[in-house]
């Protein structure tokens, strides 16, 4: 009888250890599971705002932005001339620390009237001002642009995943760089194939651009640009983009820590799909139900217990 009790106790102890290990393992796997947010539902433009140059908020000028066949499309079928109708499609929620992934491809030919530099050219705006805060005749939002370029089949290099800076500047190679666009080291993509792109955004610290799993560009400290003067011979010509100079020059060199994500329409047809985001900011308390081990920025006000 004593032997039986000892055996039972040992058996119970083993069960307890197994159960505890299983519980720990489950908790760890939950904290590591990535909660991706699908920005595009594949059906319509719900959760997105639209702003075109010279048009009211959420007027989809000439049906340029379309949801078709699980793609978010920029289409110019109804245009006779581009007429500088720059458009941007803004996701409803601003983010600070996150990973953004998407696929894109260029289609068709550039719309008549678009700048030659915008042939096979589009972009995704990061840390952007909101759609409603744009001026009525503003061409581009103050933002950091993840520029998308396609090759022109002319035997010349034309990298994609460059960075352009409408109303902004940044630190590149450890110094503030005032160039409007800085090229990545990506290869040139001729043709209309799908290209996989990623951006790792760390608030006002840094951004990293990735194409087909290859890191092609890194830079730091995105910030509001300076006002151009003849003496400095550098800075932003705010009026050129239709931006309110008085509003933005007061924020010169202010680090941009968060903002909206916007898809660009600037005369070249382009398709986007598989647009999703992994928020890297959240509860970092391991005791909380919604703790995630991959968070890199703490926001413990979101913790749930």
Characterize the structure shown.
- The structure is a single chain.
- 11% of the residues lie in helices and 34% in strands.
- The protein has helices spanning 2-32, 245-248, and strands spanning 36-38, 48-52, 65-68, 71-74, 87-91, 97-106, 121-128, 144-149, 162-164, 168-172, 175-177, 181-182, 195-202, 206-211, 214-224, 260-265, 270-279, 281-282, 297-298.
- Strand 14 (206-211) and strand 15 form a beta hairpin.
- The longest helix has 31 residues, at 2-32.
- Residues 1-7 and 14-18 have low confidence and may be disordered.
Summary of the model, kept short:
The chain has 305 residues and is mainly beta.
Brief descriptors of the model:
7-stranded antiparallel sheet, 34% strand, single chain, 305 residues, mainly beta, Jelly Rolls, disordered N terminus
Main sheet summary? 10 strands, antiparallel
Average pLDDT number: 92
Specify the number of helices: 2
Corresponding CATH superfamily:
Exo-inulinase, domain 1
N to C succession of SSEs: HEEEEEEEEEEEEEEEHEEEE
CATH architecture: Sandwich
Residues in helix, %:
10-25%
